[in-house]
Amino acid sequence: MTKLLKALVASGAITQETATAILAELKSEEVTSEVDDAAQEVMDAEADEFLAHAIIEMEDKSLAERRRIGKSKAVRANLQSTLCRQNRDGFNARKWSQVAWALKNQK
Fold first, then answer.
1. Full-model pTM
2. Do residues 35 and 56 both lie within one domain?
3. Closest by alpha carbon to 85, among 70, 71, 95?
4. Beta-carbon count within 10 A of 98 CB
């Protein structure tokens, strides 16, 4: 795309300011699409998959490290539970709450 814009500027079809504006718009669209993709991943997250990743991450760690990791992951799980409640999805909200409680209260 950059080569095309440079060629258009060189031929006089568009000005440098126009080319700069087009590039800025393209970059802002890329950032917006990345944020949208990340938000969609959060919306599509599954509690059992999240817990499985947490278990793998905590494997072969000391109890203190497992608790630290668990508490930080529990925060995310609580946020997921809140998101489900806002979407009126009580079933998944309960699953996420159970995951958060399990991660937070390790013994």
1. 0.64
2. no
3. 95
4. 14
